[in-house]
Design brief:
Number of strands: 4
Number of helices: 5
Helix content: 40-55%
Strand content: 15-25%
Largest sheet: 2 strands, antiparallel
Number of domains: 1
Distance between the termini: 11 Å
Order of helices and strands: HEEHEHHHE
Length: 122
């Protein structure tokens, strides 16, 4: 079982996230589709690796997951057309889950976001 991150690393990550919250489109001329007024913009996998290492983690792998994410969200949209299942991510996403899924697919296809899986240990 992994030990929790140190209070110092936790505070550093919290401060980093707080500094990175921007109004949609404010950062780097972004035009990410998102139903909220503000969003934390995303870092590149390399910048995320550097941040994790700076917080005391060792990054084992960085795996590009674009195709998996597209298939997952498109399948979710297709099955939702028959009505929501009793259990699923839509319960966490709330009543706007379909809109959020469509936005994710559109942003992945437009190259504005690129899902990755980063495995790190401490």
């Amino acid at each position: 079982m992994s030990e929790p991150i140190s209070p110092r690393a936790s505070a550093a990550l919290r401060n980093y996230r707080r500094r990175r919250t921007r109004t949609i489109g404010e950062h780097r001329g972004s035009s990410v589709s998102h139903p909220c007024r503000t969003v934390s913009y995303l870092e590149s996998p390399e910048d995320t690796r550097l941040l994790l290492e700076g917080a005391g983690f060792a990054v084992d792998t960085i795996e590009e997951r674009t195709e998996f994410a597209l298939q997952f969200f498109k399948k979710g949209l297709a099955t939702a057309a028959d009505g929501p299942s009793p259990l699923g991510i839509h319960l966490v996403r709330g009543p706007t889950a379909r809109e959020k899924f469509r936005n994710i697919v559109a942003n992945i296809e437009a190259g504005r976001i690129a899902p990755v899986l980063i495995t790190a240990r401490r």
